[in-house]
């Protein structure tokens, strides 16, 4: 099989797995939240979530009807071949998944309001590229729901306020979002770089599993502190009250301009979908997040 | 907290028994309507044009489903709720005009809708956002689809449901709004969080 066909097949499998099976770490976090939630309405919601996750697996159907905007992250080995063909393969895979899984057509022309019907359109699916050492290609898909996307926020904070300003920015974002992003959420927090970079790395931070701590112990502590703060809001599962508003906070940063303190909060809904696979130069495929037969 | 199982058409008397925090399961006929279907239904009402279906006593679901057509028949693939606040600008008129008894969605609705529910007798049932398969499994059949020209998510899907839920009654017909209650508590908590973490308001 040609590399480009392999990429298309792998991307199709990833899309299918991602929308049907929640990553194990997210599932475990939801189970833990259900066990610990004390609000009655909140517990009802978490139970419905867990039942739904189980039914999706049983019936091989998407967990949520909003199968999201399709975003890919590609780590391309500098020595990998046919990199110029990858985007085309990802578009084909997206079209196929839309029909065969199926996915909801979620790609609309912002001027004519016309839905393309196949989840593709100008710059969609969006592909984030990274060139890495070696000759393999690592593909990650993040089908990103619209409800949680609508409350993502970026801002230029006051550098003099430092981390305190950042904490308040995140807490305020969660308070403002309320029930809208389908809590319990996962928060990606991006700091520095510039306004565009902060949001880009915030969203990328959502790819880190909940059971993998930040490699920097100082930042890991900050993540924990922010998690504690946002769970004091009482918004709860689906905004019906309770102590589980956020399942995890993942921080990502870049250095900043002395005069600027860009920050961004990317929200993911409880249906925090992602799937990753690696394609070797020998065309061997390794699925890293899901089991694919 | 009480559990209610109601069958459509639901009477005003039945719906007035429900209070916030109760759990509701609905059986019978449910129609989906998002922004565009709400807008069109109200336009029809203004022009005294009949709707494709009489909505009195029925449940309306804020949902843009994924459907699949096999032969001539439509099947539900996934059908979770969408954010209800977008329909706030239509819902009071909608309840008043069509006498629907249950509005189902996620995220809650505002004062205008709460007032209309108290006045005309309707409740808002919060269905878990994203729980699309749980919803799909309670949908027994697609009776018909109307206004498909609006697109798959925005069309009006007329569905036969069995024990559709669990719905948390989040707005009842007595002027109570659970989401507003939570919002008030959350606002109180804001100050506690600022204090505990030394954040200046």
Describe the SSE topology.
The complex is a heterodimer of chains A (293) and B (201).
Chain A: H1 3-20, H2 24-36, H3 40-59, E1 69-77, H4 86-100, E2 126-132, E3 137-144, H5 146-149, E4 153-157, H6 162-177, E5 185-191, H7 195-205, H8 217-231, E6 246-253, E7 261-268, E8 275-279, E9 285-287
Parallel strand pairs in A: 1-2, 5-6
Antiparallel strand pairs in A: 1-3, 3-8, 4-7, 5-7, 8-9
Helix pairs in contact in A: 1-4, 2-3
Chain B: E1 3-7, H1 12-16, E2 23-32, H2 35-46, E3 59-61, E4 66-70, E5 73-78, H3 88-98, E6 102-105, H4 111-120, E7 123-126, H5 132-138, E8 139-146, E9 156-171, H6 178-196
Parallel strand pairs in B: 1-2, 2-3, 3-6, 6-7
Antiparallel strand pairs in B: 2-9, 4-5, 7-9, 8-9
Helix pairs in contact in B: 2-3, 3-4
What is the total tally of β strands of chain B? 9
Portion in helices of chain A: 25-40%
CATH architecture of chain B: Alpha-Beta Barrel
* Helix vs. strand class of chain B: alpha/beta
Q: CATH-wise, what's the superfamily of chain B?
A: Fe-S hydro-lyase, tartrate dehydratase beta-type, catalytic domain
**For the record, what CATH class of chain B applies?**
Alpha Beta
């Amino acid at each position: 099989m040609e590399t480009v066909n392999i990429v298309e097949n792998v991307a199709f499998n990833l899309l299918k797995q991602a929308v049907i099976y929640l990553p194990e770490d997210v599932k475990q976090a939801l189970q833990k939240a259900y066990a610990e939630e004390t609000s009655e309405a909140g517990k009802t919601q978490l139970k419905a979530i867990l039942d739904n996750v189980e039914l999706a697996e049983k019936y091989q159907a998407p967990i949520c009807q909003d199968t999201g905007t399709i975003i890919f992250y590609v780590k391309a080995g500098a020595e990998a071949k046919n990199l110029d063909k990858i985007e085309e393969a990802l578009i084909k895979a997206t079209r196929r998944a839309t029909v065969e899984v199926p996915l909801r057509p979620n790609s609309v022309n912002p001027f004519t309001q016309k839905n393309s019907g196949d989840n593709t359109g100008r710059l969609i699916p969006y592909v984030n590229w990274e060139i890495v050492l070696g000759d393999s290609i690592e593909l990650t898909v993040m089908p990103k729901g619209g409800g949680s996307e609508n409350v993502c926020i970026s801002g230029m904070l006051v550098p003099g306020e430092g981390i305190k300003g950042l904490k308040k920015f995140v807490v305020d974002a969660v308070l403002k979002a309320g029930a809208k992003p389908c809590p319990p959420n996962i928060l990606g927090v991006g700091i520095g770089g510039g306004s565009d970079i902060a949001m880009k790395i915030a969203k990328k931070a959502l790819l880190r599993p909940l059971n993998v701590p930040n490699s920097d112990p100082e930042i890991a502590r900050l993540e924990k502190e922010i998690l504690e703060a946002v769970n004091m809001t009482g918004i709860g599962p689906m905004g019906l009250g309770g102590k589980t508003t956020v399942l995890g906070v993942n921080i990502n940063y870049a250095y900043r301009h002395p005069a600027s303190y860009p920050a961004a909060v990317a929200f993911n809904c409880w249906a925090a979908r992602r799937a990753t696979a690696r394609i070797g130069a020998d065309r061997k495929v390794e699925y890293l997040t899901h089991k694919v037969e | 907290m009480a559990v209610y199982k109601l069958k459509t058409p639901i009477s005003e008397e039945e719906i007035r028994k429900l209070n916030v925090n109760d759990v509701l399961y609905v059986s019978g006929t449910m129609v989906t309507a998002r922004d565009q279907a709400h807008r069109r239904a109200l336009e029809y009402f203004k022009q005294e044009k009949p709707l494709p279906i009489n909505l009195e006593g029925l449940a309306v679901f804020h949902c843009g489903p994924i459907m699949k057509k096999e032969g001539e028949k439509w099947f539900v693939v996934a059908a979770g709720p969408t954010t209800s606040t977008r329909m706030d600008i239509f819902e009071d008129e909608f309840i008043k005009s069509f006498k629907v008894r249950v509005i189902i969605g996620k995220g809650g609705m505002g004062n205008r809708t709460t007032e209309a529910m108290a006045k005309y007798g309707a409740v808002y049932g919060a269905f878990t956002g994203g729980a699309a398969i749980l919803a799909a499994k309670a949908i027994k059949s697609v009776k018909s689809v109307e206004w498909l020209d609006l697109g798959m998510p925005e069309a009006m899907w007329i569905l036969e449901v069995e024990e559709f839920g669990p719905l948390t009654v989040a707005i009842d017909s007595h002027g109570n709004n659970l989401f507003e209650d939570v919002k008030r508590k959350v606002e109180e908590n804001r100050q506690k969080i600022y204090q505990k973490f030394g954040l200046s308001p």
